[in-house]
Amino acid sequence: MNFVALRMLTGDRAKYLGLIFAIAFCTFLLENQTSIFASILKRTGSQILDVTDADVWVMDGKTEYFEQTKALKDTDLTRVRGVSGVEWALKLFKGAPVARTRAGKFATCILLGLDDATLTGAPRKMLLGSWERLREPDSIVIDNAGYILLFPGEPLELDRELEMNDHKVKIVGISDASAPFLSNPVIHTRYSEAVNFIGRERTQLSYVLVRPQPGLNAEEVCRRIEAQTGLRARTTDEFRWDCILYYLKNTGIPVNFGITITIALIVGTVVAGQTFYLFTLENL
């Protein structure tokens, strides 16, 4: 029986090769779109995962994802530090200034301002230079993709200058930071420098990074912070999934990719079914 079925399948070489090509193409389309979909969603929380020093993120109660920030009061940092179970709590600034080169090339950047004393949240994967040089005045660390965007076709080089909102800054390191959702350069600097690059406002604290005390899990510390401060506290993994779910609910990404994946499944099933039917009908 198996021999007869195999002869029926391969007897007409043209139809057999057409069937293989159709199934292979639909499978490629299905896997390609699925992998792109997963990669895009992974990028939504890439900057969260790059901060390996902290386990808990504290933010305004209405914050839904990383790109959406509402400045906290400076006193909120003290309130978080006073919560039982918090080993340390440090500030993090996030802004979007425009960086410009001497040649006139410019791009809107993702600027992350780190705690001046500890540099918590600094990129650990460095391609050139050191994140510890951020202690120098007017210094920044830029990611490799951002450097290539601003200096296309030029080799990686330290101590180059950028203009950031009328402030001259010096590149002291080039990091291998994870790619963000949008193709914007990712720049790290000290908190005090970042607020100067953006322009000082009444409140500028974007996030509070927290490390739980040994023996306490991050989820328990999150519940304590929310109960005592009224702020929103999320673990690193929870905050990353918040970003993914936000883009799934509020953008057309799942619909667009879902349509392509569904068409690939339908076309593959129809072509394979029709070809098998013709094989059977002709050999009856």
Walk me through the structure.
- This protein has 284 residues and is of the alpha+beta class.
- It is 44% helix and 22% strand.
- Strands 1, 2, 3, 4, 5, 6, 7, 8, 9, 10, 11 and 12 form a twelve-stranded mixed sheet that branches.
- α2 (13-43) packs antiparallel against α9.
- The longest helix is centred in the N-terminal third of the chain and has 31 residues, at 13-43.
- The two termini are 14 Å apart.
- The mean pLDDT is 87.
Q: Calculate the mean pLDDT score and round it.
A: 87
Report the oligomer.
single chain
As a whole number of angstroms, the C-alpha radius of gyration is 26 Å
Give the overall shape.
elongated
The H/E string reads HHHEHEEEEEEHEEEHEHEHH
Q: What features would you highlight for this structure?
A:
284 residues, alpha+beta, elongated
List the helices and strands and how they pair.
Blueprint: H1 2-10, H2 13-43, H3 46-50, E1 56-59, H4 74-81, E2 86-95, E3 98-100, E4 106-108, E5 110-114, E6 126-129, E7 139-143, H5 144-150, E8 161-164, E9 167-175, E10 186-190, H6 191-198, E11 207-212, H7 218-229, E12 232-235, H8 236-250, H9 253-283
Parallel strand pairs: 5-10, 7-9
Antiparallel strand pairs: 1-11, 1-12, 2-5, 2-11, 3-4, 3-8, 6-9, 7-10, 8-9
Helix pairs in contact: 2-9
